[in-house]
Fold each of these.
Amino acid sequence: MAKEIERKFLVDEDGWLGRAGEGVAIRQFYVAAGGDRSVRVRQRKGGATLTLKFGEHARERDEFEYEVSPDDAREMAAFAVGVVVEKTRHLVPHAGHVYEVDVFAGSLAGLVIAELETPDEVADADLPAWLGREITGEAEYYNASLALNGMPRPGAMRIDPSRPFDRELVRNALAQADAAIASLGRASPENPVALHEARKAIKKLRALLGLARAAAPGILAAEARRFRDAARPIAAPREAGALVETMDRLIAEFPGKVAACRLADIRAALAARHARLFEDRADLDAAVAAALQACGEGRAALRALVVGPDVDPAEVLARGVKRNLARGRKALVAARNRAAPEDFHALRKTVKAHWAHLGLLRNVWPGKVGKRRAAAERLGEDLGELNDIHVMRAEIAAGTLGLPEGIDTGPFDRLLKSKAKALSRQCIADAEKLLSAAPRNLQKTLAAAFGDAGAAGSPGKAG
C-alpha cells in the first residue's frame, strides 16, 4: 500500500510542451465508483492494472494497485460504469518532481489536467508557471466523475486581481470556449438542451470580451464577432424551444385562459415544430460542425492572446462596464419612447452582459454586488420572455407560427398583447433602477483591488 499526496491542476497554457516526454495513450474505466472509494481498470500499451482507491481527504488517499492481464481487462470492460476515459499522458519534469499531464480526448476533448503525486507537500512557490487553477478536492474533476458525468461545468467566471490580468482574461475565456465545445459535442436529438448550454457559454464569453475590449480592441472585437457567428447555426432549435417554455409559463399564469385561447393546442404545435428541427440529423450535424469549427478557431486565437505591459486592468474593466451601461441606457430610452421589439431586445443584451460583468468583478465591485446581480438576472429573464412574446406575435401576423387549421389566433394574440404591455412597463421600471448610472469610483476601486500584484502583463504564474 502507498499513501500519496495528490494535487491536481487545470492546464490552460502550453509552456509544458517543450519539456514533455513522449505521450502514452491510456484507456481507463471504472467497475465501481462512489463515495470515498473507486475501482479502476487502466489499459495502456504493454499491460493493464486494477487500482483501488480509498479516502475522502482531498490530498491524501490510500491506493492499492495490481497488474492484470490484458484479456482480463478487456472482459471487465463489460462491467464498466459510465464511459471509457481516453487520454494521452505526458511526463513533465520540474524542480525535482515529475508532473503527469493528461490531455483528454473523445467527449472530454479540450480538458488538460496536471497531477503531482509526492510523499511530501510541495510549496506553491515551487510549482511551474504553466499550471492553471488548482482543482485538488473538486470531485467533478476526478477521473471517476469524468467517466460517470462527463465534462465538468465551468466554474463561475471571475477575475482574480491577485493574478496577471492577461492570464485571467485568457483563463476565463478558455473556460467558456471549452464549455461551449463540450456542450456542442453532446448535442443530439436526445439531448437538445446541450445546444442551449453551448449558446449560454458563448454569450458569457462574448460578455467577457466586451468587458475587456480596450485591452486589445482589434483582436477582442474580432473574436466577439467570431463567437457571435458561431452561435448562429444553432440558434433556431434553441429559439423554438424557448417559445415552448414561454407557453408553459402562460399556461401556468393564466389557467382560466387555456381553453378560450387554445393554449394547450398551441403549445403542442410549437413543441412539434421544435422536435422537427432535430429530425433531420444531417442538418443538425452540419449546424453543430459549423459552430464547433468557429469555436475551435476562436479558442486557438484567444489562447495566443497577449496583452501589452502598458495596459491598466482597472481602466480597461471600468471602461467596459461603463460602455455597456451606456448602451443599455440608450436602449432603455428607445424602448420607453418607441416600445419596438428590437429596442427591448437590445436592452436585454446589455442587461445580460451586465449580469456577466458583475459575476466577473464580484470580488472587486464597489458595494453589494449580490443584490444588483440578482436584479439583473430577474430583468434579463423578464426581457427574455418579452422577446418570445414579440416573436410569437410577429409570427401570428405573418401566418408562420405553424398552428393547425381551425385555431382562431385572435384570443391568443390579445392575451399576448396584454402580457407584453404589462411586461414592458415592468421591464422599463426595473431597467431604470439598474442602469441609472455606473457605480461611483469604479475605476479607483478596481485599481485598489489590483494593486501591484495585478499589474497588466507582469510575469508570474497564472495559477
Note: Residues 369-398 form the longest helix (30 residues).
Amino acid sequence: MSKRKKTYLIGITLLMFFSSCKEPPPPPKEKVVKVVLATPQKRNFQKKISLRGNVEPREFAQICAKADASIENLYVEEGDIVKGGDILFCLEKIDWESKVKIEEYNLHLAHRFVKEQEVLMNIGQAKLAKAAIDLRRSQALRNQNLTSSDELESLELSWKITHREALLSEAKLESSQAKVAQAQNNLTIAKKYLQDCSVTAPFSGTITKRYKERGEYARKSEPILRLENHEELELSFLLSAQYYHEVHPKKTKAIIYREDKKELTLITYKSSYIDMNSRTFEVKITLPQQSRFISGMMCKVDLVLEEKQGYGVPQEAVLLRQNNRHIIFISQNQICQELEVFPGIQDDGYIELKNLAHPETLQVIVQGQSYLSEGNKISTPLTPSISQTEVEQKENL
C-alpha cells in the first residue's frame, strides 16, 4: 500500500472517531400558542331580519275632477298645508248652472202636468158617477117595461167607456207623478255636479303634487292634486313568504333605525295574502308622530322574529369543520381541547351555544384559535380576557 493511501485511511478513521464523540442535538421545542380566553356570557339573543322599507303616509288621496270641465281656479301650490274642507280648485260652472236652471224649469212643468192630470181624473170620476146613476135608473125602468132594451144597452156602453176613461186618467196621473220624481232626481244630480265644481280637501294635509294648471281641461276622475297627511306616517316593506307565520301584528317587535338612534316598536299590519308573482307579503309599522321621518324616505328596520336568553361566545370563536361540524377550543390546564357545539342565534357579533353544560365554568379561546390543533399547549398574554362587565358595557353602548 502506498504512503498516500495510508495517510488517507488514517484521516478518515480519525474523522469518524471525532464525529462519534459529539453530543446529540437537543429535541425540538414544543409549540406554544398565545391565545385570549373568555367565559361564555349570558345575554339576550334576537333572531332578526334586516330590511329596508319606504316611509308612506297612512292617509293620502288623489284629488280628481268630478265632472268634465276646464279648471277655472287653482287655489293651492305644491307644499301648501290645507285643512279639511278648504277649497282646493274650481271647475267652470257655467254649463252646470245652465243645466240646473233647465232642470228646475222641467220640474216646474212636471208639477203643472200633475195638476192637469188631477183635474182630468176628477172630471172622469164625475162622469163615471153620472153614468152609473143613469144606468141604475134605466135598469129600474126596464124592470117595469118602461124603457126599451136598446136604451139600456146604450147606457151600459156609455158607463163602460166612462169607466175606461177614468182608469186612463188615473194612469196618466201616476205617470205624471213619476215624471215629477224623475225631474227632481235630474235637478238633484245637476246641483250635485254644480257643487262638485268646487272641490274641497277631504282631510287636513300637505299638497305634494299638482298634475294640472289653471285653464287646462280635466276629464271626470282625472287627478288634479295629490294630498298627503304627514302627521300620520307608516313604514311599508315586503317580506319573503317563508316568514309569513312568524310575523304577528301587535306582537312582533321591530327596531327602526333613524340617523344615530334606534326605536323599538311593534308590527301594526300584515297583508292577508301572499303575492303570487314575487312570493312576498306586505308588512307595515306605524311611525311615531315626532319621528322626523318624511314621506318617500327609505328606512332600515330589523324584525325580531325570536328572542331568548342564552350563553354565547364571540362569533369568530366558533369554527366550521368537515361534515358541517361546529367546534370551539377550550383551555384545560394550559392545553387546548376541541369541543363540538351546536350554534343557535347569531346576534351582534355573538353566537348562541345550545349544548353547553355549565358554560360559566368554561374558558373558551376567542383569539388565536385559527392556529390551534387539539392538544397544543397554549399561553395567555397579559391582555385580559373579555369580562362580563366589558360585555355589558358594549351592550349598553
Note: The radius of gyration is 50 Å.
Amino acid sequence: MVNFIVKYYQLLLLLGIWTIAGVYDPLLGYLLIIAGIVILISKNLFTELLMGFIFILIMDDNIYNHIFMFTPVAKMFYILALSFFFTVSTRVFFPVFRIFLWFAPFFALALVTLFLNSPVMDEGFQKTISYLLVVIVVPNYLLQAYRKSGPEVFKDLFYFGILVIIAGFVVMIFGKEYVMIKGRYAGIFGNPNGLGIFCTLLFLLYSLSEEFYPSLYSRADKFLFFGFIILSLVLAASRTAYLALGIFFLFRLFHGISPFLSFTMLIAVLVGYELIFFNIVEIIRFFKLEAYFRLHTLTEASGRIIAWNYSMDEINRNFFMGRGFHYDVFYFRQHYSILQKMGHEGLVHNSFLSIWLNTGIIGLLSFLAPLLYLIFRTSTVSVLAIPILYTVLTSSFLESWLAASLNPFSVFFWIILTMLNSHEIYGQKETDTISVH
C-alpha cells in the first residue's frame, strides 16, 4: 500500500484539491476537475482517469453528500469528458472494444420508452445516455490502461478500492458519528449497504485478477487487505453482502467440482428457499444475533418485499413497455408517504424490477440476455465466471445498483465483465505464458 501511495501521490493530491475546491466553491471545483481531466488525458494516464472517475462517484454516494453538493454535476462533466476524448481520439483506443454493441437494443428501447411514456424526460434522458457512455467508455479506458501497464492496472484499482475502505476508518478517528448510520458502519459511503456492495465487487475484482495472475498480490497484502474488507463487512452488518459473498464461495466450490453440480445447487437453493430461510432464522436465534442481523426486519427483507409488491402493481400497468429511465425513482418518490406508512423507506431495492419499471419486460430481457450470454460464454476462460454471475445477480436482486449508471458499483462491474470478455486480458493469463512482465 505504501508503494501504491508513493506511485500515485500526485493523483491523490489532485483528488484532494478537487474535493476541497468543490466544497468551497462548486464552480471552482468544476473548473479544476475539467482541468485535471485534460491533464490526465494529455499524458495518457488511463488508470488515473478511471480512479478519478470512481472517486467522484464515491463522493456523490457519500454519507455527507449535502457537503459534496458539487458531485452530481461533476460526475456528468467527467463522463462527458471521457466520452469526448474517446470519440475524437478513437485511434488511441484501437482496436475498440465493442461490448456495448450487445446492449444496443436495450438502450434503443430505453430511449423509445422514454420519448413515448416518460413523465421525467430530462432526468431520464440524462441517465440513459450516461449509462450508455459508461458501457462504452469504461471497458475501453480499462483496456488502454492494460495495454500500457499490464496486469498492474487491476492491482492498482484494487489498492485504490482498499484505500477508499481505509479512508472510512481514518474518518472514524474523528468521531463515530461521521461514519455511522443508525448504529451501522457506512465508511465514506451513503449507507452501510453501499459499503457492502463495494466490498463485494472489490472482492470479485481481486478474485478474478488473482486467478488470471496468481503472482500479482503478495501474501502480506492479502492478509492486510482482507482484514479491512472483513472488518468493514462486520461493522456494516450488510446482509446483502453476506448473502452475495456466501453465494460466491458456495458456487465457487461446487462449480470447481462440476458445472452441472453448481447449476443443480442453484436450482435447489431457489426451490428450497423457504426451508433455507427458516433454518437461517433459527441459527441466528441460536447464536443470539437477532439484533445484529436485524431479525425483526428479515421477514420483510427490510421493507424490500413491500417495495417489490408495490413495483409489481405498477409494472402490471406497463408490462411490455416501461416509462423510461428514472421512472422508478419518480414513482417511488411520488408515493413516498404511502410506502412509509406501509413500512418502507427508499426505492425499489431490486435492479431487475427497476429495469422492468423503466423499460418493460422487453427491455429487461434485452438487458439480461446479452449479460447472461457474455458471462456464460466465458466459463471456459475462468472457473470464477459462473460464481461471479450468481454473486452479481444476488447483489443486484436485493439492491438497484445495476440499474443505475453513475455509481462506483456499476463501474467495477463493467471492469470485471471486460476482464472476462477481452481476449487481450484473459489471453495473457500467467498459466498461458511464461511471464507477464
Note: The chain has two domains: 1-93, 95-149+237-426.
Amino acid sequence: MTNYIIPIETNTLQVGLHNKLCGIYLIKNRLTNQLYIGQSRDILRRWYEHCKDSRSSFRIDRAIKKYTPDNFKLYILKVLPENKLILNEYEQYFIKIFKTFDKNDFHYNMTPGGEGLGYKEDHPNYKGKIIDDAGGIDYLKKSKASGKSLEDMLNEFKISDKAFYNYLKDQGYTGWHELTGKRESSTGVNHYNYKQQLIKDAGGLNFIKSCKIKGLSKQEVSDNLGVSIFVLDNYLKQNKVNWESLTGKRESSSGKNHTDCKWQIIDDAGGMEYIIKSEASNNTLENLLEEFNIGHKSFYRYLKEHGYSGWYDLGRKRKFKIIDDAGGISYLKQSKKSSKTMKSILNELNISERLLNNYLKAHNYKNWSKL
C-alpha cells in the first residue's frame, strides 16, 4: 500500500483503465479551502463523475459545478486494495485527521465516512435526524436535567451550535436554557444570577472560548446563550479575562501552550514526524503550506517551537544524522587518519561538501583540514 499525499493537476487528468487507482482521495477547493474526502475503486474516474454529475445533490458535486473543475485540486491520499472494509476504515481515518466532517459544516463531507450513519447526504434534515434518533427534545431535556452542558451535547451529536439552535427553534424553543424552564429567585423574579447560571450550564468559559475560535462574534455568543452582552462581559470579568484576551490556547504535540490555533492542524496531521517525512520525500514547503492552509510565519514559528530554525534545517539535521549514524566526528577523524580523502567520505555517505563543512562547524571544526 502506498501513501501519495500529492496533488494531481485536475485539468490534465485523463480517465482510463491505465490510470486506475483504488484508495482514498481528497478534493480541495482552491478558492475557499474547503475539502472533501472520499473513497473509490477508481479514483480518477470518480473525479470525472464528480465533475460530470451536475444534477447531483452531493455538496461536493454542486460546489464543482458552481466554481468549475479548474478551481479544484485532487490529492490521492492512499492507494489501497479493493477491499470495502479497508476502504471504509481509511476513509473514516482521513476524515477524522483532516476534520472534514466538523461541527461548523465548513467542509463538504456530510458523514464521518465508511458507511456513514446510514443517511443520505442530501437528507433535508440530516443534522436534525441525528438528534431525533437519539430521542429528540425529550432526550435533550433529560440530558440537561442530568447536568450535561450545551458543549457536551454538541460534542455528542458532532454538530455545530448553529445547527443545534436551528433544531431547537424548529421545535419551538429559543435556546438551550428553555429546555428546563426559567429559574426564578426566591421572590419569583428572574435575576442576574440566573443569567450567569445559563452561561455555566452551556459550558462556561470553555464554551465561550470554543465559540470564539470558531469565529463567532460576542453578539452571536450572547444570542446563543440567551443573555445580554453586559451579562457576558461580567461573567468574563469574574473569571479574570475579557473578550479580547480569549485566545483559546491549545496544547501542541510538544505539550507547550500556544496561541496559534493553526498549529493544531499540523499536530492532527502527525506533527513534526509528518513534516520530516514530507521533506524527506521531496515534498515542497509550498505544498505543505497549502495542505495545512497556514502562512509561512505560523509554520516557521511551529518549526522553531520544535527546535528547527527553518525548512532548510529539516533536511540539514536529517542529513547530519547520516554522519552521526556512521560514527560522527570520531568516524571522520579515524577516516582522515587512515588517509581517506574528503571526496571519498562524501561519496561513501552520499552527502555534499557543504553539508560536511556545516557539520564540522556545528562541532567546532572550521573545515576538513582542521579536523
Note: The first strand starts at residue 2 and ends at 8.
